[in-house]
Amino acid sequence: IFDRLKQGLTKTRKTFQDTVATLVHRRSIDAELYDELEEKLLAADIGFDTTTALLERMKKEARRQSFQTADQLIPVLKEAMDEILTAQDHAMHTAAQGPTVILVVGVNGVGKTTTIGKLAHRYTLEGKRVMIAAGDTFRAAAIEQLAVWAERANVPLVRQAIGSDAAAVIFDAVQSARARQVDVLLCDTAGRLQNKSHLMDELRKIVRIMKREIPDAPHEVLLVVDATTGQNALSQAAMFKEVADVTGVILTKLDGTAKGGVILPISRELNLPIKWIGIGEQIDDLQPFMASSFSEALFS
Ligand code: GDP
């Protein structure tokens, strides 16, 4: 699983190794080095605030421990990254009894449908009974795509006609999940962003209606963001944090991008735990996020 992670992170690892690690090779520590480091960290999509914090930390340790050479900064950087990533609770919350309800939110195109299929597959392999609810009733293609993934994962899909009320679909699914003793109910939602207050209303309505059946639902509100969009993923996460009670983030498409560093500002600046990472298009290309393995993989 660690090798798979390393492989999945190939491009992001290259960014860290080719730039940061090469930069510190056989150099002394001076202002110019810190300037260059800053540039490289920003280019790795770590964002301004987090880059500044990482630099401060390196400077402080360099002084405190009287470092002689720049490569001594790397373990400090790694440790600081670990601290950022391990600060949150990455575990998935589950229902004490009855179905665990997972609401999946995010804009179109980020990989939401694929991720729901992957999660369904994963929980099925764990021996859980899984059901999917097609809560994006706005796009016919979204429902069809979800049906394809439900079939692949071999789990039932609750759907209604295009244009029907999303909250009604979810209510139907929650009732059905209880009746059929489902363990995990994965609820898709619409990803239209044009109108923030509309999105907020729709998500609120869905949550209010599911609580009628299961008062402590949803047990997770997972936001899917696309790592290839870098800083855009960060601003989407900030936006969704405002409109919904997001409990965690799924970062997709890490395999195709050098922008994986965006994981750091999402954790540090938004204080949102990364719960899963997508590292490919296949059904088993989803991994639970393991904070300590991430920076290890970047620097190995
Ligand atoms: P949605 O509109 O958010 O539901 O997005 P889809 O699930 O339809 O995915 C959009 C595209 O992203 C598809 O071509 C997927 O195969 C691709 N995709 C999703 N997750 C990943 C991933 O982790 N890695 C890669 N390389 N592609 C992905």
UniProtKB/TrEMBL annotation:
Q: Which domain of life is it from?
A: Bacteria
Query: What is the uppermost EC class here?
Result: hydrolase
What this protein catalyses is:
GTP + H2O = GDP + phosphate + H(+)
From the record, give the transmembrane residue ranges: none
Q: Which organism is it from?
A: Ferroacidibacillus organovorans
Presence of the UniProt keyword GTP-binding in the record: yes
What gene name is given for the protein in this entry?
ftsY
Q: What is this protein called?
A: Signal recognition particle receptor FtsY
Q: What is its main location?
A: membrane
